[in-house]
Amino acid sequence: MSFPVAYPLILGAILFALGLYGALTQRNAIRILMCVELMLNAVNINLIAFGSTLQAATAGQLFALFVMTVAAAEVALALAIILILARREKHIDIERVNLLRW
């Protein structure tokens, strides 16, 4: 017996909304990065849910795997930038950072 597709879609929508709210309201770069990852995981839940509904479970899982790969690369790059910022500016508050000013 399978469960309705609405359950994972509602879960994905709630997770995406929480991630979007966090990404728009936080000032700490690490917290913003975590909220973006939460939004990407919500997209993965929706991809797998739609894939299982449309009888294309393999396609949904492959797209989710691709999203996870891109998310891992994004985290590695973002953490490197945050570490450089923390060493240079001694904080990671994004509202206090102005790298384009000499």
What is the topological layout?
Layout: H1 6-25, H2 29-53, H3 57-89
Structure characterization notes:
By secondary structure, this protein is an all-alpha fold. The chain has one domain (6-89): Helix Hairpins (Orthogonal Bundle). The chain contains 3 helices and no strands. The mean pLDDT is 86.
Helix proportion range = over 70%
Broad shape: elongated
What separation lies between the terminal Cα atoms?
A: 63 Å
Over all CA atoms, what is the radius of gyration? Answer: 17 Å
CATH topology: Helix Hairpins
Descriptive keywords:
76% helix, Helix Hairpins, 102 residues, single chain
Write a short abstract of this structure.
With 102 residues, the chain is mainly alpha-helical. Helices cover 76% and strands 0% of the residues. It has one domain (6-89): Helix Hairpins, CATH 1.10.287.
